[in-house]
Amino acid sequence: MSAIRPAAVVVLAAGEGTRMKSATPKVLHQICGRTLVGHVLAAASELEPENLVVVVGHAREKVTAHLGETDPGVRTAVQAEQNGTGHAVRMALEELGSIDGTVVVVCGDTPLLRGATLRELTADHAADGNAVTVLTAEVPDATGYGRIVRDGASGAVTAIVEHKDASDSQRTIREINSGVFAFDGQLLADALGKVRTDNSQGEEYLTDVLGILREAGHRVGASVAGDHREIAGINNRVQLSEARRILNDRLLTEAMLGGVTVVDPATTWIDVTVTFGQDATVQPGTQLHGTTHIGEGADVGPNSRLTDTVVEAGARVDNTVAVSSHIGPGASVGPYAYLRPGTRLGAKGKIGTYVETKNATIGEGTKIPHLSYVGDATIGEYSNIGAASVFVNYDGQAKHHTTVGSHCRTGSDNMFVAPVTVGDGAYTAAGSVITKDVPPGSLAVARGQQRNIEGWVARKRPGSAAAKAAETASRQDANED
Questions:
Q1: Which of 125, 216, 380, 460 fits 182 for a cystine, CB–CB 3.0-4.6 Å?
Q2: Residues tagged active-site
Q3: What is the pTM of this model?
């Protein structure tokens, strides 16, 4: 049984979502790297519909702007007043015009819905020759959901009754309406014109279309989802958190089945756009966001947060925050490193403890072991940057670039005041402030000469612990002499 390509998918995303208690429209809240409506669009796109339209209403400027960034091919229809789901679909059909073929309707707040489930729905719809097919599910607690009412003899769907309009006996039904449907487009358009508003909310219910089509002698069927959690709508932050946990577990399961070791799934969080190579390892307390890729055999964590970062094969990243960075094969980062955007660490390179980098290209085998800041810089291959070094890139108005060549050895506590270049094979002395270019193979010494003022403590700090210690040491030296 194969699915057919729908003529249109309509995504309902006009509601305000007051229970979220947020200035952000409900459908723009995020889990696992996408907005709620973004997840729905991703699932809908798997059907490759001829048209994809989102019905917007509340905060439509924000939602429309987001849709333009997510998928420029998505069309929008405006539901200026939220007069029910039937009214929302009417607005979509007015935007689309006459539709021949299948129209799939989905809700914009169901981020767990899979494209495979939608394909099964459209396949069932086509195979059964239905005028409308509703996606249903059996749930442990049906409170608040529309109930699926079936004919006792044939099992055919006879109606969908909203919870607030249901009788006591109907409220015992556990099979619910998901809000997802496949319709014959022409029959849908005709039936929407007959939907009434004589219900407790005074709204046009899309679910009334089923009864209208059934009374007209058309087939009304159902496709039962295998996992009721897929159809769960998000109405508050508790449900948002629950959906995030479910989706994250789903993503981690797929990763582990694909050959990734996730040491502690309970404390590991990833986005839908994260990818892995085989035999990658993710340690506890790690978050992977955006387009991050963990290469084959790489080891990330514990307690690391990587965003839009590539970690190549065999690299090791420990207790690190990295954003828009690239870590080469076999490289080592951390612990307690901060890689800011534009960092590129070469193969077998090292960014060590309490090191911060930004807009820096660091060559193969080069090491920045500890306590340093490297910003707006290019460092060649197999160089070593001494501890407590700072690349002084900002003069108060503009950023400047520092270049350090290959096979250089820079001393501890160096300041490189950009713009400045240290040539290949050069050395710099500890404690130096490098303000001039250093020729290849040279030793740069840029510090004042040491001067010892004897007896200063005794004169300036008489009676202090330091003075007493110095006096004792002086006596011992005299005795030894």
A1: 125
A2: 370
A3: 0.91
